[in-house]
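FORM 12-B: Structure-to-Sequence Request
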């Protein structure tokens, strides 16, 4: 007898066979649904999704072999045990049943002892399969968690350099396929060494965490990606963002930094500011992530050379000094 009750679909057209078999199964605690032909069996299978199917071979209309093949097509990668019931005892009938998608073959009338043993075996197989599925799902979730940890910066909870490289490669390929512009922005905390020297490294870490929160807030679209590029440098990947949109984004970031007002006692403006380099292009098959990183880095150096607290784009040949909102004071 099975240790755990099963949901069983019994497909048998003869009432004289179906009724005692149903009573026998129910006596062992199993739940039984009945079907008299192949098409009714398919309807019951779709609606009930049984744990086991007991299938008569000879049915009115389509036979049990046909029904088994249809069930295998319906369930896809799932698996429901099918035991054929037949008065035929030739070995070719067994072979045909297995080829049709069956798992076992019983000659009618099946003895109560043999049937109970078969149900016990099928129940054990189902339990083992469920355990395997559960283990596989747990392993998948663990791998996702591990991947997340290896691509996340522990301090800021943004992406790390590995995560940035992976996302940038993906974004280059995707924008190239779709013919969409891709913007990469690399920014650096102005006078951060002075900040650490004056306030200490723990406060410097707190500053970086706060900037990380600002960057997470401003990256509103699911496709946008913010990462800690290294040290006090950050990078933002903005797919489907044209040049004008990139500069608008940079001005909005500077406004958010100014409103946050993170105090910097050794900065010309009195609060923490960012300098940034921007590059925007529509990638093609020759575009590489490394090219974008180098181009954005060059633009960042130009922004610093212009006095910091600004973002510079070679493509637009302009910086944000002249385009900031009136409540932002530029650095010198």
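FORM 12-B RESPONSE
SEQUENCE OUT:
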């Amino acid at each position: 007898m099975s240790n755990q009750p099963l949901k069983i679909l019994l497909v048998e057209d003869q009432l004289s066979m179906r009724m005692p078999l149903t009573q026998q199964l129910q006596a062992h605690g199993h739940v039984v649904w009945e079907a008299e032909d192949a098409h009714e069996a398919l309807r019951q299978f779709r609606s009930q999704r049984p744990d086991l199917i007991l299938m008569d071979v000879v049915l009115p209309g389509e036979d049990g072999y046909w029904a088994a093949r249809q069930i295998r097509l319906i369930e896809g990668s799932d698996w429901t045990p099918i035991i054929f019931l037949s008065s035929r005892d030739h070995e070719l009938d067994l072979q045909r049943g297995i080829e049709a998608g069956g798992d076992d073959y019983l000659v009618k009338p099946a003895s109560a002892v043999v049937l109970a043993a078969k149900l016990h075996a099928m129940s054990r197989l189902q339990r083992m399969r469920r355990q395997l599925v559960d283990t596989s799902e747990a392993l998948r979730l663990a791998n996702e968690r591990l991947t997340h940890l290896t691509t996340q910066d522990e301090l800021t909870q943004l992406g790390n350099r590995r995560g940035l490289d992976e996302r940038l490669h993906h974004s280059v390929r995707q924008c190239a396929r779709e013919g969409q512009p891709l913007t990469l922005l690399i920014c650096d905390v102005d006078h951060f060494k002075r900040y650490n020297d004056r306030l200490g490294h723990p406060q410097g870490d707190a500053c970086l965490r706060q900037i990380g929160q600002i960057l997470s807030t401003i990256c509103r679209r699911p496709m946008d990606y913010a990462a800690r590029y290294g040290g006090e440098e950050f990078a933002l990947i903005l797919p489907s963002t044209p040049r004008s949109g990139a500069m608008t984004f940079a001005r909005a970031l500077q406004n958010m930094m100014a409103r946050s007002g993170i105090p910097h006692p050794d900065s010309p403006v009195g609060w923490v500011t960012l300098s940034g380099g921007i590059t925007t292009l529509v990638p093609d098959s020759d575009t590489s992530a490394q090219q974008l990183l180098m181009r954005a880095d060059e633009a960042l150096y130009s922004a610093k050379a212009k006095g910091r607290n600004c973002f510079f784009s070679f493509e637009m040949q302009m910086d944000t000094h002249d385009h900031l909102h009136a409540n932002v004071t530029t650095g010198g």
